[in-house]
Amino acid sequence: MQISRYSAPEFDPYGDNRQTDTDAGWRAPVAPGPLAAVLSLPGSKSLTNRELVLAALADGSSTLRAPLWSRDSELMIEGLRALGTRFERREGHGGFGDDLVVTPADELLGSTTIDCGLAGTVMRFLPPVAALALGPTTFDGDEGARRRPMGGSIEALRALGVDLDDDGRGALPFTVHGTGRVAGGEVAIDASASSQFVSGLLLSAPRFERGLDLRHTGERLPSLPHIEMTIAALAARGVEVEQPERGRWRVAPGTIRAIDVDIEPDLSNAAPFLVAALVAGGSVTITGWPSETTQVGAQLAELLPLFGARVERAESRLTVHAPEPGADGGRGIRGVDLDLSEAGELVPNLVALAALADGPSTFTGIGHIRHHETDRLAALAAELNGLGGRVTELDDGLRVEPAPLHGGPWRAYADHRMATSGAIVGLAVPGVVVDDIDSTSKTLPQFTQLWGKLLA
Ligand SMILES: O=C(O)C1=C[C@@H](OP(=O)(O)O)[C@@H](O)[C@H](O)C1
Ligand SMILES: C=C(OP(=O)(O)O)C(=O)O
């Protein structure tokens, strides 16, 4: 059975209510008035792509219930399939597509090429798996993917005894010459450019002959919650990750258990919808909000009140209410001063919100997001300033000062979160046109339909 690439699921629960496309792109709809939306969202990218890798390395078949179906997860599926993993779609009941049964290969086989697209999880999680496969595996991706740092993965694999050909830039493309076994053992890397170097090694580590003793040598380690998510996903499959000190992880060789897992909704993809409540007024509710989670998007419940929102939890729903209007009758969005080193993937949407605030904001601790889908600090400054904003790049962040915005083009840079940030600004500013709204298919192919439902 073939799994289509980059596709929205066959079943569209909200019907086709896309906004009109113009030649220049997608005209972001202005909010018609205060919102009263209740939305469900598809599965988490980060959870889905971890579970796909672990399921492929496990000791039997695993079922992923309500996984994400998007470009990033489909690239992960295709990559694992190329190495011999088997997949079977089963009818799901979550409303966003099928469940997925994953059966590990009897023997992982290389002699293949893996397209990473622009997915950090694919380019950092699969090379260690390819090292466990017999035969060469070449990794490449989109043009933008060749600019994303890969040095941490490349150097670590070499230090663990893996033969690898690259052009010395510490980036895609490269070839992993898998021999069916990885010696493993001690390794030190600088993961300050991406936590995914650490997560990728940890996910495969139980299959290394001597396991893994990994140390981070850099000064900063971004996105710690994502490493905690990796550790929790391993623990659920019977693998303990010891942390003898900060920035060090030990994994003993052993079995990764096959289990069935429910994938939580993507809480980082909840950000544009929840932020919309502050911009448009009214309230937005997301259903299926987990009571406990390792997803960094859960921090929205604490972050959005700093901007003036009121957040309410009731059973499995999270509701964000708009702030009280300001003295001038404006939106009442407050400026913030935030270190977002843990939550880099929330930055674009929160910066879009800050651009509509009454006071200035400073975001720090996020130099690493220059290495995300695009240089997000440069991209946010360029696009907001292009609409009249006053955004200044800092070494490790952004300063956003209030300024009246006007309509105009908004470039997405193939970055799903830049695209959704343009949609946020467009709620308040007529005439914002996002050049590539389809970039949202990276993690949320239903974005425009859900945005239509938000505003209906
Ligand atoms: O492991 C993961 O699933 C992710 C880790 C983070 O990467 P960085 O540490 O490179 O920021 C995050 O920003 C990305 O969206 C997803
Ligand atoms: C940084 C992100 O993606 P990736 O998994 O490609 O690193 C993101 O989704 O914000």
From TrEMBL:
Is Transferase among this UniProt entry's keywords? yes
Name the segments for region: Disordered. Answer: 1-27
For phosphoenolpyruvate, which residues are the binding ones? K45, G120, R148, Q196, R376, R417, K442
Q: Name one GO biological process term.
A: aromatic amino acid family biosynthetic process
Which residues of this UniProt protein bind 3-phosphoshikimate?
A: K45, S46, R50, S194, S195, Q196, S223, E345, H372
What Enzyme Commission number does this protein have?
A: 2.5.1.19
The record's annotation in Gene3D superfamilies points to: Enolpyruvate transferase domain
> Where does it localize?
Cytoplasm
Q: In which pathway does it act?
A: Metabolic intermediate biosynthesis; chorismate biosynthesis; chorismate from D-erythrose 4-phosphate and phosphoenolpyruvate: step 6/7
What is said about its interaction partners and assembly? Monomer.
NCBIfam families xrefs: aroA (TIGR01356)
Family affiliation: Belongs to the EPSP synthase family.
Cited function: Catalyzes the transfer of the enolpyruvyl moiety of phosphoenolpyruvate (PEP) to the 5-hydroxyl of shikimate-3-phosphate (S3P) to produce enolpyruvyl shikimate-3-phosphate and inorganic phosphate.
Q: Specify the protein name.
A: 3-phosphoshikimate 1-carboxyvinyltransferase
Tell me what organism the protein belongs to.
Answer: Agromyces tardus
